[in-house]
Design a protein that fits this description.
- Helices cover 61% and strands 10% of the residues.
Length: 163
């Protein structure tokens, strides 16, 4: 049972790290001369990367969708971090046979939030651009979605037993 709890803890920590990297790092959309994330854009001029704000025109980065992606990504990080603290607290406070439902709920909320962020980004941004590709932060967001979904299901199924 301790090995299972340890594995769940490791998966949860990995999901938190992936969520944080996906939210903070600057590679959601990339071209040869530009890297874009959900916060800003870096443009290569004369072999120097310059930080610029995202254009919030109606056709490039609509501000309401951009704010939804940003808020959902941050909420996913917050819910997942709260979930790990609740998981550790439940290890010591739950009676034998009770479920880790609160941890599962926090992980499921994190799962939904990062899914919403990545889905909006996929649907609303870079639809007509043909010379770019999705970067590693975007891919990590989808991997974090899968990990948080798996850990939330595991929390809902897992019962606390004596080790």
């Amino acid at each position: 049972m301790l090995v299972l709890l340890g594995a769940i803890f490791v998966v949860h920590i990995a999901a938190i790290i992936l969520l944080l990297v996906a939210t903070i790092d600057n590679a959601w959309w990339m071209t040869d001369t530009m890297w874009t994330d959900i916060w800003a854009r870096w443009i290569l001029n004369n072999k120097v990367w310059n930080y610029t704000s995202l254009p919030t025109h109606i056709y490039t980065y609509p501000e309401d969708y951009l704010q939804a992606v940003q808020a959902s990504s941050v909420l996913a990080c917050i819910f997942s971090i709260l979930g790990i603290f609740v998981f550790v607290a439940q290890l010591f406070t739950l009676q034998k046979g009770q479920r880790f439902t609160i941890s599962g709920i926090f992980q499921f909320l994190a799962c939904l939030c990062i899914m919403i962020a990545a889905s909006i980004y996929t649907d609303r941004f870079h639809k007509d651009e043909k010379n770019g590709w999705y970067g590693h932060s975007y891919i990590l967001a989808w991997i974090a979605f899968v990990l948080t979904l798996i850990s939330s299901i595991t929390y809902f199924v897992l019962r606390k037993k004596t080790a």
